[in-house]
Target: Cytochrome-c oxidase
Amino acid sequence: MGSVRAAVLLVLSVAGAATVLWVAWRAQPQVDASATSRATTEPAVAARADGGDPGAPDEPRDGRDAGAPPELADGGSPAASGWLLGTSSAHKTGGLTRWLTTLDHKDIGLLYLAFATVAFLWGGTDAMMMRTELFVPSVTVWDAHTYNALFTMHGLTMLFLFGTPVLAGFGNYVLPLLIGADDMAFPRINAIAFWLLVPSLVLLRAGLLTDMLGHALVGGGLAGLGEQLLSLAPPATGWTFYTPLSTSLELPTVSVVLLGLHLSGLSALMAAINFIVTIFVERDVPWRDLDIFSWAMLTQAGLILFAFPLLGSALLMLLLDRTFGTTFFAVAGGTPILWQHLFWFFGHPEVYILVLPPMGLVSLILPKFAGRKLFGFKFVVYSTLAIGVLSFGVWAHHMFTTGIDPRLQASFMAVSIAIAVPSAVKVFNWITTMYHGTVRLTAPMLFCIGGVGTFIVGGVTGVFLAAIPIDLLLHDTYYVVGHFHFIIMGLISYAVFAAVYYWYPLVVGRHTNHALSVAHFTLTTVGITLAFGAMMIMGNDGLPRRYAAYPAEFAPLQQVATLGAVLIALGVAVWLFNLVQSYRMGDPVTTDDPWNLRDHGDRRTAEWDELPFRED
Model:
């Protein structure tokens, strides 16, 4: 019955998201006739809907008559055309064919972002299903296997199908514009890297889909077919696939998921090579003028180049153990600890693969609304490179409880504490950039500030976990979950939301609604504080993670955490509504400086030159 309930909640979640999008699409703008008449005779002085300054009245930028609509280079109109402003072009095919065959870096970037959004919503649904079970101490909503499968799928989906692709999406769309390149160095490889993610998603999520469909068929009278699908139950190994459980579990879907992970790794590797070659070969700016986001993407690509091949090799060895009886990770042959070494040698650089580009986004966007240049630009670049190097020397701090040599433990503890230094450099530089600055609390700036705050909490709590005596007490407790999510759901999601709001006028040609953006920020911030703050308190009191049942005394804190998760989900619903509604009827962009950066020090970067409006 647990899978049936999971299917029902999944259907309700999809229906809820569809309802939000439908309401946003069908909403009609409220037009004030008197305001319309005044707008024809008076200059526009109201604050922009997305929180930008009112600035000067919008004027034609290319010498056309004042009454003429601003036209795009290819003859379109940003306010009236159905195309995305930054990707419309006369020579492109239309409809579905365009998106299936495109090699344009902007289109591929948007495909990455759309794919990552679907994965984010699906992985978030897994999290809400887990929080539903954890609302009460006993196992009542799902069964234990379904809970473990949800935990496994949530981790894999968010890390491999949301975190890495969403950053590749921003990199594909913006990075060539920032460095003056016409496109990515290898457009076809760029397209292949994206399309590999689609079968990866299918293979990773196949177990839950077949399980839910099997229960539906059994309930509908097709017991024979339903039982066959039920034999393909979702894996419940945990997203780390620790051996010997992952080698001994007789579920074919474990091998299917491993193949899906391998495809996602190949996709990330091809994208990383493309970014490296693009920055080195296609760059039209000198190294000293390279922007901080491009530096972060270059460092991330270097980490992927060294980390993901190791993951691919470990996955193949695990598949050989499962399929052909080899003994790479068997107790009698190799050792299960070898899997942990290989996995975490990839796994901890993976954390910085996910974190470094968001750090670059914050470093790029935050100064633009602080009215100052990024303080200590070179030190931020050096700290980015230092994190990339040090990230390969900290993997065994995940293994302090496995009985490895204490001398090795001490060396990994030292490096784990040392890596906090370049991270702290970034935080101090962000704060100093805002100090004595002219801070404008636009939507992107709110999320940048929120990302800095959550990163401080997640980073400081991580320093405690780097100390061996403390880690021995807190290992595998909810404290680790809270710390990790303050980084992942804190800094990463905040930076992604900031980038979406910041570049939305560039891509769509319209402004988002500032009031809805503030509501999104408020719900997300309160939700993250409640959800993961409660987890850290529970972990500090010794509650182990990864269990569907728990002692009754922890129920109030678990319910607070569930309330926080609900607030985060409401914030995401507001975000989706804002994007869709703004696409249909947001204030049109009529200038090549939609954030009024020129009036605050001319901190514009090259991507805004893609807007069709130019200064006289």
